[in-house]
Amino acid sequence: MSVALDMRVEPVLELVSNIAAADRKRMALRDIEDGLRLWRLGCTLGWLDIKLRYRGSLLGPLWLTLSTAVMVGGLGILYSTLFKTSLRDYLPFLALSMVLWNTLSGTVADACVCFTSAEGLIRSARLPFTLYAIRMVVRNVLVLGHNIVVIIAVYALLNVWPGWYSVAAIPALALWLVNALAAGMFLGAFCARFRDIPPIVASVVQIAFFMSPVLWKPDAIHGTYRVLMDFNPFFTLLEVVRGPMLGYMPPLEVWVSAIFFSGLLCALAWMMFMRVRGRLAFWV
């Protein structure tokens, strides 16, 4: 009797589970569509974040540019001497590396608090959660825009220009935007549930800074260690933008690695967001 009852109940439970999964998928897709439709609001919120961050400051966001310029200048002189290379060859590499790495690490740090930092707005207004990820992306794009001044200044000072290779950096930057949005939705949800994750992520990023060719060039190591660098997502994502801006095209394996890790991040973000979207408002 009980066996027969279990056989009848099991298909019903499976059907209910499939309906719930389909409903979660539909709601997640609608959230993403509504968020992308409100991209202008996301841009406005991101711009407002920058204004509020430097409210009352004399130079405003230009303090970022000034501090980056001082760091690039000081480290450029120091490490060009330590590495016994010319300043003209090393300084453009360092300027690009530092500006791009600061954007990359800043985006990862902001992604961890993508939803928790918007707790008040999430609890007071019914808006798509994707909008907060867009807000975070816009905020970091604006910071990158200020720091690009340092790269242009180094190019002009040394009269070193990348040429037509720099066009290849455009799709790479588009890949960065997709990754930043996915990181916000994945890490934002994950860190909203587990509040001890952001310090762990910060430690991983700090270790990755020294393990990745930011202060040192990729051709400084050879053999097995050079091959292993292609499995470092921080390096490949950095290199697909930095290489064209330095006047050379990164190897095919670097592009393949960057695209693979980007696809993996997007898949994780989708699975996480689809599963926990309905609980985010309670977690923040």
Give the topology, please:
Elements: H1 2-37, H2 39-53, H3 62-82, H4 87-112, H5 119-124, H6 130-158, H7 169-193, H8 197-211, H9 224-229, H10 233-245, H11 252-276, H12 280-283
Task: List the defining traits of the structure above.
284 residues, mainly alpha, 12 helices
Describe the protein's architecture and organization:
This protein has 284 residues and is mostly helical. It has one domain (2-283). The protein has helices at residues 2-37, 39-53, 62-82, 87-112, 119-124, 130-158, 169-193, 197-211, 224-229, 233-245, 252-276, 280-283. The longest helix has 36 residues, at 2-37.
Percentage beta strand: under 5%
The residue fraction in helices comes out at over 70%
What overall geometry do the principal axes of the alpha carbons give?
A: globular
Output the radius of gyration. Answer: 22 Å
Q: How can the largest sheet be summarized?
A: none
- Secondary structural class: mainly alpha
Q: Number of DSSP helices?
A: 12
Overall mean pLDDT: 85
Low-pLDDT regions: none
The domain tally reads 1
The helix-strand sequence is HHHHHHHHHHHH
Would you count the extended β strands for me?
0
